Amino acid sequence: MTFNQQVYALVRAIPVGRVLTYGALARLLGVPRGARAVGWALRATEPDGDVPWHRVINAQGAIVVKDRLHEAHVQRERLIAEGVIFDVHEHVDLERFRWQPAEFEARALLENLI
DNA sequence: ATAGTGACTGGAA
DNA sequence: CTTCCAGCCACTA
To answer: Is pTM beyond 0.90 here?
Structure first.
C-alpha cells in the first residue's frame, strides 16, 4: 500500500460536512511533515472520482488551489452544500468542522485495507 | 540513483 | 495581520 493509497483511504473516511488539513492527514499517516506529499496525492485524483478530495483544506482553514480556479470553486460549493461554513475571509472554523478521529481508529481503518 | 515538482507549514521579518 | 523562506516528502521522468 503506497502513501498515496493510504491518503485516499483516509480521505474516503472523512464524514460528510467535516474537513481535515493536509498536515493533520499526514500526521495520521505517521508522516509529520508530509503535508506537501498529501497535496501531491490529492492533486492526482479525478475531480468526480470516489475520493472526497474537497474535504481537505490547509491549516488556515482555507481552500488552496494553484492555477485551478474551476476546481477551487467546485470545492467551495461542495463544502457549502455539506453544511460547512465560510466566514467573510473565506475561512472555515477548524475548531468546529475539523474531523478528529482517534488514532486507533485511523490505524484500524488502514489495516483493514491492506 | 537523481533532479524537478507542488492542493503545505511553521516560524521569522 | 501581512508576506517570505526554507525544510519536507512522495512521485515522476
So the answer is: yes
